[in-house]
Design goal:
It is built from ten helices and eleven strands. With about 290 residues, it is α/β, with parallel strands linked by helices. It has a seven-stranded parallel beta sheet with strand order 1-4-5-6-7-8-9. It has a two-stranded antiparallel ribbon with strand order 2-3. Helix 2 (about 40-60) runs parallel beside helix 3.
């Protein structure tokens, strides 16, 4: 959300597992398993396609503006796959979505442990017009050298600092420093985990332009998203459904507003499109929710 105006500018792809017997299983529980088992590439691929498919529908129907972006988390393991940039390029062409409408979120660890393969991959992704931002910035080994070395376009200020605004002077100074650093390097900024008007106002005063969090609402599926955020858009002839049930395809991403996450974390950028998938091989019933303000 744009902090000054309250305008919706983007959404973050979330993934949830709604198990038929065990109920809701948080990403913090199943994403590490996907990472360790090597399934995270399939999960990520599916979420990429699900998110871009939904975005293409909304753009075509006028639900969102051409400037609206979708944000997708990418795991360190995915960034070691030299074919990722080609997969992203193919998906952009397949759904007719411009690269500038897609933001990929990486962790600080990717920059620190980055290999030549990762650096080359990030450069190829940037050549597609895709934006690359550092998620949960400030919680790892942040350093100006890493930001200058890698082709990133922005940072997301971690919720742990946002939560203390107006209460903890040290958190305010940290955010102030991140704003100054980002401005000097020409990086965009999004504050995560904004929950109160006071936090929003402090962020605005510090120079942060965009924020996401429960202040604007919880993650929602595609149909309620259209009802809430696309009120002025034309009605669709069919549901904006990302309720997809298939045995293969692509997947990946995660974020909501909360303490956990997997490939990424939880957050809120905008509401979330609901995607479901059953994978007979591993018995998963996933429901990636696509936005989180």
């Amino acid at each position: 959300m744009t902090l000054a105006s309250g305008d919706l500018v983007g959404a973050e792809a979330l993934i949830r597992w709604d198990h038929p017997q065990r109920g809701a299983i948080p990403p913090v529980a199943f994403i590490p398993v996907a990472e360790d088992s090597g399934l995270i590439g399939d999960v990520g691929r599916w979420v990429l396609h699900a998110a871009l498919r939904q975005l293409a529908e909304w753009r075509h129907a006028g639900v969102v503006s051409e400037d609206f972006w979708i944000s997708i988390n990418v795991s360190p393991r995915q960034l070691r796959d030299p074919h990722l940039s080609a997969e992203v390029a193919d998906a952009l062409i397949r759904y007719g979505v411009p690269g500038v409408a897609v933001t990929l979120e990486i962790t600080e660890s990717v920059m620190i442990d980055g290999s030549d393969v990762t650096d080359q991959l990030l450069a190829r992704l940037r050549s597609l017009g895709v934006r690359v931002v550092v998620d949960d910035f400030g919680t790892g080994f942040s350093a100006l050298g890493y930001l200058r070395k890698h082709p990133v376009t922005g940072v997301k200020i971690d919720r742990s600092f946002v939560g203390g605004l107006g209460v903890n002077p040290e958190d305010e100074e940290i955010v102030r420093a991140v704003v100054a650093m980002s401005g000097a390097l020409g990086l965009s900024m999004v504050a995560e985990g904004v929950q109160t008007p006071d936090q929003r106002d402090v962020l605005r005063a510090l120079g942060v332009v965009h924020g996401q969090g429960w202040l604007w609402g919880r993650p929602v599926g595609p149909e309620p998203f259209v009802e809430i955020w696309g009120a002025s858009a034309p009605k669709l002839e069919r549901p904006v459904g990302l309720l997809v049930e298939s045995g293969g395809d692509d997947v990946r991403g995660e974020r909501g507003e909360g303490p956990c996450d997997g490939v990424g974390q939880t957050d809120g950028l905008v509401p979330a499109a609901h995607v479901q998938r059953r994978n007979a091989a591993v018995g998963l019933h996933r429901a990636p929710e696509l936005f989180d303000h």
